[in-house]
Amino acid sequence: MPEYKNPPPRVLRPRVELPTLEEAVTAAQCMSDSPEQQAELAAQLMGVTVAEVVPLIRKAAHRTTVMTPNRSVVVVRRPSRTFSPRLAEAMRR
Prior knowledge:
Helix content is 46%, strand content 0%. By secondary structure, it is mostly helical. The longest helix has 12 residues, at 35-46. The model has no long low-confidence stretch (mean pLDDT 85).
């Protein structure tokens, strides 16, 4: 009988993606309502100057959010069909 060896363990490397300036702007918008404070927060988060962040803050401020009305959910209940027809007939007798 052949002897089986355990394969060597695979090395899994997580992918590292650095945060973007747009993500920092979004985070700053969630923390503050003032555009000046948002620019300062985003600049501090990314380690860049406020002048680099201000155009992105202005661009992001013009985005509008679309509010949709709540949708109603209708649940239709149907009888369970756990019994076979023959078994149900036998139980009625």
